[in-house]
């Protein structure tokens, strides 16, 4: 049976075979040093810290807006402090 060009496409000249020096023996998977619950607790703690920091920043921006007599949205629009309403 004749071979079809679609069944056996020409090899891609840009793809090269790996050299023996490129192939490394695979090492066993790393053993986790923390349990899943410990990892989750770490992320929860970091998220709470982030939220607390963001709340303080929002309050400071509110104080700046109040001091200037402008709405908070104006502070965000000016991007003077490197934050926008999307942050």
Automatic annotation (TrEMBL):
InterPro entries: DNA-repair_Swi5 (IPR010760). Gene3D superfamilies: 1.20.5.170. Residues 23-34 have a biased composition (Polar residues). Keywords: DNA damage, DNA repair. The keyword DNA damage applies. One of its GO terms (biological process) is meiotic DNA recombinase assembly involved in reciprocal meiotic recombination. The keyword Methyltransferase does not apply. Residues 1-34 are annotated as: Disordered. Belongs to the SWI5/SAE3 family. This is Swi5-domain-containing protein. It comes from Schizothecium vesticola.
